[in-house]
Design brief:
The chain is an alpha/beta fold and 250 residues long. It has one domain (2-249): Rossmann fold (3-Layer(aba) Sandwich), CATH 3.40.50.300. Helices cover 37% and strands 28% of the residues. The strands form 3 sheets. Strands 6-9-10-3-11-12 form a 6-stranded mixed beta sheet, sandwiched between helices. The protein has a 4-stranded antiparallel beta sheet with strand order 2-1-4-5, with helices on one face. A hairpin with a 2-residue loop joins strand 1 (2-11) and strand 2. Helix 2 (72-78) packs across helix 3 (95-109), helix 3 packs parallel to helix 5 and helix 5 (148-162) packs parallel to helix 6 (178-191). It is globular, with a radius of gyration of 18 Å. GO terms for molecular function: ATP binding; ATP hydrolysis activity. This is Fe-S cluster assembly ATP-binding protein. It comes from Zeaxanthinibacter enoshimensis.
């Protein structure tokens, strides 16, 4: 589903990614861990198509298609979803209206008619019940006045509504207490299937207690320096990152 091949990327003449190779297949959950400044969020941004990041070598392929010249909204229409570390507030636009617009724009991009209002309401009701979201929440302005946990839960609600093929969660656990973390993780687990793939970017092993990855990759200085299964995340929790930094420097 996603293939990253010898990916080098820079921002403002600073090289951040220095040769990433990674493959995600449908049905898999991958976690990327690493210290601050290692390139984790840059990798998420490059996959999603943020324009300030320039690919200097290699590429990102989604369902065998090179994404280099594909705009962020086109990537979203193709089924790539990015959950932000710091979701933005949009006053005056309700959660429901935002979702209606997003879904209908994606349908239009695929040559489909707008979703009928009764179907949209049914979908909103199903997904909000699945994620234990209060209906009053859906009439509020997008993220305005939301707590950290509410913002993150709203991101997972968006993911549930859009049903992406590839979901990238960029430090979704950042700033969450244990209850909010559990709610977010349960939502992700309910939405994972054999037809989609999930890429979880996190500092901490604690999220991976709830979203169990098939593969764990450690990013350091713009490269993947080690890959393994969930046991690697536990080892990092115990030992920190210094031992890997030393190994990769040899």
């Amino acid at each position: 589903m996603l293939k990253i091949k010898d990916l080098h990327a820079k921002v403002e003449d600073k090289e951040i990614l220095k040769g990433i190779n990674l493959e995600l297949k449908a049905g898999e959950v991958h976690a990327i861990m690493g210290p601050n400044g290692s390139g984790k969020s840059t990798l998420a941004s490059v996959i999603a198509g943020k324009e300030e990041f320039e690919i200097t070598k290699g590429g990102v392929f989604f369902e065998n298609e090179d994404l280099e010249d594909t705009a962020p909204e086109e990537r979203a229409h193709k089924g790539i979803f990015l959950s932000f570390q710091y979701p933005v507030e949009i006053p005056g636009v309700s959660v429901t209206n935002f979702m209606k617009t997003a879904i209908n724009e994606s349908r239009k991009a695929r040559g489909m008619e707008e979703m009928p209002a009764n179907e949209m309401l049914k979908l909103i009701r199903e997904k909000s019940e699945m994620l234990d979201i209060d209906r009053k929440f859906l009439s509020r302005s997008l993220n305005e006045g939301f707590s950290g946990g509410e913002k993150k839960r709203n991101e997972i609600f968006q993911m549930a509504m859009l049903e992406p093929k590839l979901a990238i969660l960029d430090e979704t656990d950042s700033g969450l207490d244990i209850d909010a973390l559990r709610i977010v993780a349960n939502g992700v687990n309910k939405l994972s299937s054999k037809d989609n793939a999930v890429l979880v970017i996190t500092h901490y092993q604690r999220l991976l207690e709830y979203i169990v990855p098939d593969f764990v990759h450690v990013l350091h200085d713009g490269k993947i320096v080690k890959s393994g299964d969930k046991a690697l995340a536990l080892e990092l929790e115990e030992k920190g990152y210094d031992w890997l930094k030393q190994e990769s420097a040899v």
